[in-house]
């Protein structure tokens, strides 16, 4: 099978956009193969395609149509020239400001080599529209990928772990060395897959849940009784003797319910 090779002279990696172009075709194939079809979608949106290293493998798939969103005008021009069949489905813009209803009337999957400097923001945006996104496969900084996929009780477990695991089942797929990129980043990378779980809504106030989780991890070395003082004075509860990294999603829901009780008593 003939794959299109990137012409490095065409697009210059821009530091302010966090661009590191993947050049390892085997890794690119593995990332695309990570899409499982969970949620029965028929469209996939690639975030930050650059020069189309992932895109060329996506376009070979017949079970879905590939769309891309790219903020870099130079990359957009490159894609229009080298992937003419994709041109009608190239969205020039910022995913963080993107309105999916303009292009995706039904659920769609997300894939991409996420810019490391905005990967957390991408996930927070995806959470806002999570019922439209049944599956995400992405590459990001290995430390962040491990944190997102980490179970409770692990030192890597953090805010993103809880917020994303509340609504997605997460698998760590593969590690990627710096040499797979041009230019090589100074960190290792990792690929994860997120698949929407059956939780339609949390059994608590969602905004308060986000606040409880973030406040708990802001002082993760303290017990939750002390870490959550900014939220309020909680009644005695066994969970308050633990630290944030020890709690599961359901236990954070329980804490949020306690916080709701506090609010009604004030």
From TrEMBL:
Residues in Ribosomal RNA adenine methylase transferase N-terminal domain copies: 27-198
SUPFAM superfamilies noted in UniProt: S-adenosyl-L-methionine-dependent methyltransferases
EC number: 2.1.1.182
Subcellular location(s) of the protein: Cytoplasm
Enzyme class: transferase
Residue positions binding S-adenosyl-L-methionine: 20, 22, 48, 70, 94, 113
Signal peptide interval: none
GO cellular component: cytosol
Principal localisation: cytoplasm
CDD domains: AdoMet_MTases
GO-annotated molecular function: 16S rRNA (adenine(1518)-N(6)/adenine(1519)-N(6))-dimethyltransferase activity; RNA binding
Keyword list, A-Z: Cytoplasm, Methyltransferase, RNA-binding, rRNA processing, S-adenosyl-L-methionine, Transferase
PROSITE patterns: SAM_RNA_A_N6_MT
Family: Belongs to the class I-like SAM-binding methyltransferase superfamily. rRNA adenine N(6)-methyltransferase family. RsmA subfamily.
PANTHER family the UniProt entry points to: DIMETHYLADENOSINE TRANSFERASE, DIMETHYLADENOSINE TRANSFERASE-RELATED
Name the UniProt record assigns to this protein: Ribosomal RNA small subunit methyltransferase A
Source organism of this protein record: Dyadobacter pollutisoli
Designated gene of the protein: rsmA
């Amino acid at each position: 099978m003939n794959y299109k090779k990137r012409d490095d002279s065409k697009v210059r990696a821009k530091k302010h956009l966090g661009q590191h172009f993947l050049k390892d075709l085997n890794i690119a194939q593995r990332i695309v193969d990570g899409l499982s079809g969970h949620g029965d979608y028929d469209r996939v949106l690639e975030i930050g395609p650059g020069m189309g290293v992932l895109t060329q493998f996506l376009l070979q798939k017949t079970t879905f149509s590939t769309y891309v969103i790219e903020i870099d005008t130079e990359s957009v021009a490159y894609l229009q020239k080298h992937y003419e069949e994709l041109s009608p489905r190239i969205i020039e813009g910022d995913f963080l400001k993107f309105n999916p209803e303009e292009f995706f009337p039904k659920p769609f999957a997300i894939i991409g080599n996420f810019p490391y400097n905005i990967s957390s923001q991408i996930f927070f945006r995806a959470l806002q529209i999570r019922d439209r996104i049944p599956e995400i496969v992405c590459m990001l900084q290995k430390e962040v990928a491990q944190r997102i996929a980490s179970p409770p009780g692990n030192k890597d477990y953090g805010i993103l772990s809880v917020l994303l695991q509340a609504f997605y089942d997460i698998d760590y797929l593969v590690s990627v060395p710096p040499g797979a990129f041009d230019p090589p980043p100074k960190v290792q990378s990792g690929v994860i897959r997120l698949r929407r779980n059956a939780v339609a809504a949390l059994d608590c106030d969602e905004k308060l849940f986000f606040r409880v989780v973030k406040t708990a991890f802001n002082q993760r070395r303290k017990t939750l009784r002390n870490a959550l003082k900014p939220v309020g004075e909680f009644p005695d509860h066994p969970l308050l003797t633990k630290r944030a990294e020890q709690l599961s999603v359901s236990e954070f829901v329980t804490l949020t319910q306690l916080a709701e009780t506090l609010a009604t008593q004030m």
